[in-house]
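for ur thesis appendix - Prephenate dehydratase. copy paste whatever u need, i formatted it the way the template wanted (i think)
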Amino acid sequence: MKRTVAYLGPAGTFTHEATRAFFPEDDVELVEYPSIPDVLDAVDAGHCHYGVVPVENAIEGSVVLTLDWLIHQVDVLIVGELVYPIAQCLLVHPFQAGRSPEEWTRVISHPQAVAQCRLYLREHLPGAEVSFAESTAEAARQVKSRPDEAWVAIGTRTAGELYGLHVLEEDVQDHPNNFTRFIAVGKEPLPKRNRDPELHKTSILVTLPSDYPGALHQVLSAFAWRQLNLCRIESRPTKKGLGSYHFFIDVEKDWDPVLMAGAVAEIEVLGCHVRRLGSFPCYRVSQGAKPIVR
Ligand SMILES: O=C(O)C(=O)Cc1ccccc1
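the 3d part is after this line
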């Protein structure tokens, strides 16, 4: 039976490219979903074996919809990570391609993509109104559906090819070295893979019992004295009141019954609630690599 993988679609999103790079095998069927919550729900409900969503971008930071949906709405494991290069392109309908910069009336994209190009848009398309779409390829589809409008989508070169749009400009993000971290989620860990990962990580979600001086310091020291390297810590509101947070903590270590289990047990003794989000292999695609979407 083919394994199914849900991704933030439609075809031609950055997530689509990242999903293909993470699952290049022929016996994997990719299934598009229109939003990040739809991908996570599809995996949680057992409609797909795995799902891929963006979680963090080098310019814009966390994709908070992904983090919050993981915390509050679904019970899935993080089973893998892929860091993928992001080159934002301006895509326009071929009928409109001859316009000058001040004539574009609307820019459409996913909020993360818009945020990665804020300086560029202020300088080069100041007259354009911004509107948001659930994904970059959805924005491309909207531009394609209105040949009479001077609209611009921000997205992948692949979307330009798939939807027959003209690539007006490439690499319009405000900073070079633009990468997004994508996670693969599932109900079960991935079977052993034949590609060696760059490293393994463990993600946990820690909720402090109450706020007292040094509470977070105590949590962090459980990792520090075991020489466990933390590569990310991110707080999100518990939604129960201002000043109350969950902490996402990524540790550069696969799960093990001594060091990792010991650190988690120590944090639990402090009265914290700890949810294990997964231990997983991490991969990276370098800048300039050709997408393998098909
Ligand atoms: O995958 C996409 O195309 C998205 O719309 C989400 C996104 C946006 C910008 C960078 C990475 C992922």
